[in-house]
């Protein structure tokens, strides 16, 4: 398959690129750095908001790995997702979003999200709120083949690649050890599995270490 990874300079993006390449897929990385620091052989320096429909033609899937943490940059989660949805509107190109855990529901009625629970760290609430807003806006799009993939609450950059994960849905899930944890490497496996299988169009899914 031919896969585009945008905001490719981040650590999650690099893991996704490496996983896809290992499986024999063709990957083009789009990033803002002057030098290609990703595993991809083809790197194009271009900001997400500068991407055009023509840039993403011919791809089977686009992975949006955008991340922002400073208060002034947090609205970028909505604007970048909306821009990618706009330029992929009406096409067969899939849009897969590297999401957050804060918007996962903790009740079967889906009225309370993880971000709203008492133990959710205050420091991460602005980020979780911004990412949750982007997801809510994405849900309104009927013209895009999107999939939003939430990691476990403890999303570990340097965690081991176990090769195993539990695929879940909208609700916050713990594994058999009562943990909500996954490494970037195992998350990347789940992302590329989803790209290959394409089973969750216009859905949010989540993953946790098995």
UniProtKB/TrEMBL annotation:
It comes from the Bacteria. Gene3D superfamilies: NAD(P)-binding Rossmann-like Domain. This is NAD(P)-dependent oxidoreductase. Residues 8-193 form the NAD(P)-binding domain. InterPro entries: NAD(P)-bd_dom, NAD(P)-bd_dom_sf, Polyketide_Oxido-like. It comes from Megasphaera hexanoica.
